[in-house]
Design a protein that fits this description.
By secondary structure, this protein is of the alpha/beta class. It has 9 helices and 13 strands.
Length: 286
């Protein structure tokens, strides 16, 4: 059984009159737990109704909430979501919510007294100096075979400094094809092709594997000695919220188990397509 530590936001996606549990780190954690991994999920919720419901949902996914902190001051995070006609989301993400204040407390420190197969983190949580400092402490002290960085850009909550720092930590990086061009321009002041971009990351950082998701067109995965192109899987899209997180979970589970990026890319595509065909980022009993 793989041991995974996932760090970051739990929030509620508000779509019209409905609310769905989400946040990329939680989505990833729920899916990789579903695939049979042992997951330490690190986050923070408010001392409020959404926070209580978050804990209930976290437990319903089979996850332990012992590393989910409670914030007596700041509310549980939310995302106001608008869906396009194709099911693609746009977000409004209020600041100064609970996941912006994740602390390096005794429970989190104690959780690092073991070796993990992988640690997962993203970009959004680094908008806050408190949570960013805690992430730095986690990555500085954890013993993990792989570090998985999901770039997952949201609004303006990223910078060249944040992305460069994050890439320096990572062995596996995932982003979508739109993000490739944003990051390429930000880091190198140029728009590289996917393969050129990977070669730059390989040269400038310690990235071993780069996953590029392309929505209905599947994905491309690069390693030092191989390039894999997986075509998309045709499904009737309900919404694409969390599909990338599902891809990440299935990819990590397969790659860390078999070391086969072909099989990992195929597994990621299948899980991502399944989630895109259902409502919400973590469809119950997928």
């Amino acid at each position: 059984m793989l041991n995974i530590l996932a760090f970051g936001a739990v929030l509620w996606d508000i779509i019209g009159e409905e609310e769905f549990i989400g946040g990329a780190p939680l989505n990833f954690s729920a899916h990789i737990k579903h695939l049979g991994c042992d997951v330490a999920f690190v986050s923070r919720v408010g001392d409020d109704a959404r926070g209580n419901l978050s804990r209930a949902c976290i437990k319903s996914f089979g996850l332990n909430d012992s590393l989910v902190q409670t914030d007596a001051i700041h509310p549980t995070g939310i995302a106001l979501v608008e869906l396009s006609s194709s099911g693609s989301p746009s977000f409004e993400l209020p600041i100064n919510v609970a996941y912006d204040f994740i602390e390096f407390d005794l429970a989190l420190k104690a959780s690092l007294n073991k070796e993990y197969d992988a640690v997962y983190f993203g970009t959004l949580e680094q908008r806050s100096p408190v949570t960013s400092a805690t992430l730095d402490m986690v990555l500085s002290n954890i013993r993990a075979k792989h570090v998985f960085y999901d770039i997952n850009l949201r609004l303006s909550y990223y910078s060249k400094k944040i992305i460069e720092w994050s890439l320096k930590q990572a062995t596996i990086v995932k982003m979508n094809d739109d993000e490739v061009y944003v990051v390429s321009k930000l880091l190198y002041e140029d728009e590289y092709s996917l393969e050129q971009f990977y070669n730059k990351l390989l040269h400038d950082f310690n990235v071993e594997v780069l996953c590029i998701t392309k929505g209905k067109d599947g994905c491309e995965v690069f390693s030092e000695n191989k390039k894999v192109v997986q075509p998309g899987i045709s499904v009737e899209v309900v919404d694409t919220i969390g599909a990338g997180d599902a891809f990440s979970a299935a990819f990590v589970n397969e790659y860390l188990t078999s070391g086969d990026i072909d099989a990992a890319a195929k597994a990621g595509n299948e899980m991502g397509a399944l989630v895109a065909s259902k409502k919400g980022a973590v469809p119950c009993r997928i």
